[in-house]
Amino acid sequence: MIRALIVDDELHAREEMEALLAETGTIEIVGSCGNGIDALKMINKLKPEVLFLDIQMPVINGFELLNMINADIMPHVVFVTAYDQYSLKAFEEKTLDYLLKPVDSDRLAKTIAKLQQTIVENRPPVYETEEILRIPCLLGNRIKLIGMLEVEYIATSPSGVNVVTAEHEYFTEVTLKVLEERSPLLRCHKQFLINVDSISEIILHEGGLAKIQTRSGKMIPVSRRYLKVIKKKLLL
Amino acid sequence: MVLSYIYCTLENPPDGLGPSINGFDMDIFTFSIHNIFALLQQMSIILVIAYLFTKSPFFRSFQIQTLHGRQLLSLYLIFSIFSILGTYFGLRIYDAIANTRAIGAVLAGIIGGPWLGLAVGLTSGIHRFFLGGFTALSCALSTTVEGMVGGLVHLYLVRTYQQHRLLSPLVAFLTTMLAECLQMVIILLLSEPFSQAVALVRIIALPMILSNSAGAAIFVSIIRDQRKMHDDLGVIFSAKALKMAEKTVAILGRGFTMDTAKEVASVIRDETGVGAVAITDKDKVLAFVGLGSDHHLIGGKISSAQTLKAIREDRIVYADGGEKKWRCNLSDSCPLGSILCVPLRVDNELIGTINLLEPKDKLFLVTNKSLGEGITKLLSDQILYARYIEQKDLLTKSELQLAQAQINPHFLFNTLNTIIAIIRKDSDRARDLLMHLSNFFRKNLKHTGDLATLEDELNHTNSYLVIEKARFEDKLQLEMDIDPSLLSLKMPVFTLQPIVENAIKHGISNILGQGLIRLSAHREPGCVRITVEDNAGNFVERNKKGLGMNIVEKRIKNLCGGGHGLDISCIPQKSTVISITIPEEGCKDA
Question: At what angle do helices B114-129 and B136-159 cross, to 10 degrees?
């Protein structure tokens, strides 16, 4: 059984997909959800083998969601969309397949066959991920997109990943690793990413340790192994 | 104006005949009265000539405010002749002649200025000089001075901004009186022997001063009346042109077609009274009204050589029926004999001609010629305007059709997908949804007429919302608050649904939480307000009205009046309210 996650913002569309996948008898549906944030959470938690992913979704669309998934748990992706406005053929190499809604079960069977083949051959999904320009953060029942320029630093804590701006702190489902790989933010500590543009001062301590003061006056630690990189970046 | 009085040859002083100049046997006053009548008589002849002058084409063309070159020369000749005639028509008083020479000189001065006055006075004075007599020099000189006096009055009036008094009979009367008095003084000063001069002046002073002054005043009032008549004609002429314009603007508002061309041709014919009016495009006759319409057929090729010439050379062609005749190429028995062809240009592009035709037995009036030319210019503007309006309309219409035809494919396929899913669980609901989908598309595809009732609009919107509600289920909540008395109100068709669709597409479908759409319609003082509110508050992010919204707004303004339209208010992340206002009594069919 192939472990699948369904992501679609419409309830009936999810149910229809669940029904169709159940009919194939080869797919185990590990979950289904209605937006990118929930999807990210479930992917990080459930690590599905395949995503049946709607493209048009509120706040974070299917493409943006893919950019926020850790490479090491990246599932295979089947895009499911009502209308091919993105010329999905162009993504054929990046994604396993794409389906048009309403989904024809014969067409779905072909997709499943292709999926099984890929898994048998143990070919990992490879996506050319793009740079993350805005970080989706939860704010009550809304999602706020924080632009990279606003970010001062990002920190992990036991409760999750926090995006810190001059005035606020937001919670995000995107991991530090993904952000380090796909944004201009620099790692300065095991638990911190810093926006170089928001550095106001670097205070050096004995033993190769340092602290960074941000423009808004917040202090974050710099560990020995990352100090060099930052110095180099700042042409020090 | 008058006269330079005496061209008297008093070389042979009267002796014993009638009143003795030296002896004053006769009552001077009685004698003067007698002469006044005699002078008035000869003045009448001058005035008849003056009257005929005002009927001349020259008089029609001259504007007292803007005299120059040829006009001044003509005036010089005319007034010189008047003045010299005044001498010849003089009344014999013994051997002297009382005369009305001054009228020409003084009036030339008043009307044409000091130079003209001087020239006329000098000409007529020199003429008088060569007739000889003991007053030859004084008469010649005084006539010149009288022309100057008129000229000085002209200068005074112009410099004190009283040009309108140049043709005032009172001014003419007083100026001439002054000039005549001066003449008497000059005669007394210059004529030898002085005793004879005194005797002469005593006899002629009163009759000459009075008759010349009166003559000048009447002359001026003739000119003035003629001018006024001319102006009145101008007023009638303008009124005709305006009336035509008023009638044609309504007709051409419907575009420039065969039908409207025929109506326009009828209007032109009725107003000008010409024999026939034809309107053509570049190669065929669009309309022909009046004489000869039995063989000048509408839709036929242009046969008139003049019309073809007007089109070819893009200029006005005129065959007056006299030297240049118009000949009908279609029928020998055609009564028409003269034509005016004016090219009809719109936006610098020749689109046809307007032709005015008169029968052979009728003169082509100059007024109709200028009227024909003027009205063509007017028609060009009107056609241009009509075109502009039509294009504006077409644009809105095609935009609307485009928007209507633009069925959002996401909406269509997602809806079908939703219905397919629902069929598995609830076939009745699926059936109901398909009915709504079919109703929605039917309304979208039907675009007859511009207006629909609020009820129709709500029906269309409702089908759309029922479907969207099925797609989003609990995520979409709907509230409606419609004043039932408004249901029959007319508004532009296809107004409400696009706004609701916008609220869902750009609003509700982009938020994660519960979406709410609130529709309301109620009366407000002076208007009816229909609002569509969503709780997404995403409008600012889009920043501008999309094509759909622009069309909706344009149509409301076009169909319901400029004061109505769309209002948008948005509280970011909270709500967007689009409100439509239409007139209290709804929109009216055009």
Answer: 170
Structure tokens at B277: 């009016």
**Per-residue pLDDT, B54:** 76
Distance between CA atoms of residues B25 and B50, nearest Å: 38
Give the gap in angstroms from C-alpha B378 to the nearest C-alpha of chain A.
52
Contact B472 A143 (CB under 8 A): no
| pLDDT bucket at A230, cuts 50 / 70 / 90 | confident
The SS3 assignment for A102 reads coil
Q: What is the DSSP string of B258-300?
A: HHHHHHHHHHHHHHH--SEEEEE-SSBEEEEEETTTTTS-TTS
Task: Pick B420's closest partner by Cβ from A37, A102, A142.
Answer: A102
CA-nearest of B379, A172, B487, A75 to A66 is: A75
Amino acid at B458: L
Q: What is the CA radius of gyration of chain B?
A: 43
Structure tokens, B384: 């241009």
Fill in the amino acid letter for B182.
L
Q: Which pLDDT belongs to residue B352?
A: 87
Structure tokens at B392: 């504006």
Q: What is the distance between the alpha carbons of residues A192 and B306, in angstroms, rounded to a whole number?
A: 92
Measured between beta carbons, which residues in chain A are less than 8 angstroms from residue B422?
12
Give the three-class secondary structure for A31: strand
Q: Which residues of A touch B (CB under 8 A)?
A: 9-13, 15-16, 19, 35, 37, 56, 58-59, 82-83, 85, 100-103, 141-143
Bond before A75 cis per omega within 30 degrees = no
Q: Do A10 and B413 touch (CB under 8 A)?
A: no
Spans of chain B, pLDDT less than 70: 1-32, 57-67, 91-97, 394, 398-406, 447-448, 540-547, 590
* Interface residues on B facing A, Cβ-Cβ cutoff 8 A: 409-410, 412-414, 416-418, 420-422, 424, 470-475, 509-513, 573
Which residues is B349 bridged to in the sheet? Answer: B346
* Short-list A185, A157, A184, CA closest to A172: A157
How confident is the model at residue B489, as a pLDDT? 93
pLDDT value at position B416? 95
Residue A164: strand pairing partners? A153, A169
Would you call the peptide bond into B193 cis, given omega within 30 degrees of 0 as the criterion?
Answer: yes
Q: Residues of A with CB below 8 A from B424's CB?
A: 15-16, 19
- For residue B509, the chain A residues in CB contact (below 8 A) are 9, 58
In chain A, which residues have their Cβ closer than 8 Å to the Cβ of B475?
11
* The token pair that represents B452 in the structure block: 């629909």
Nearest Cα residue in chain A from B422 = A12
Rg (C-alpha) for chain A, rounded Å, is 20
Which value does ipTM take for this structure? 0.86
Measure the CA dihedral B218/B224/B227/B232, to 10°: -110
pLDDT on residue B22 = 41
Q: What is the arithmetic mean of pLDDT over A1-22?
A: 95
Question: The tokens of B482 are what?
Answer: 């419609």
Residue A51: name the closest of A9, A6, A8, A91 by CA.
A6
Closest-CA distance, A17 to chain B, in angstroms, reads 9
Q: Which one is predicted more confidently, A142 or B357?
A: B357
Q: Is B404 helix (H, G, I), strand (E, B) or coil?
A: helix
Among candidates A12, A82, A143 on the partner chain, residue whose Cβ is nearest the Cβ of B413? A82
Locate the chain A residue with the closest alpha carbon to B471.
Answer: A10
Q: Using the beta-carbon criterion (under 8 Å), do B418 and A10 form an inter-chain contact?
A: yes
For residue range A76-131, what is the model confidence (pLDDT) as tens digits? Answer: 999 998 887 776 666 666 678 889 999 999 999 999 999 999 999 988 887 777 88
CA pair distance B88, B45, nearest whole angstrom: 12
At B132 the pLDDT is 74
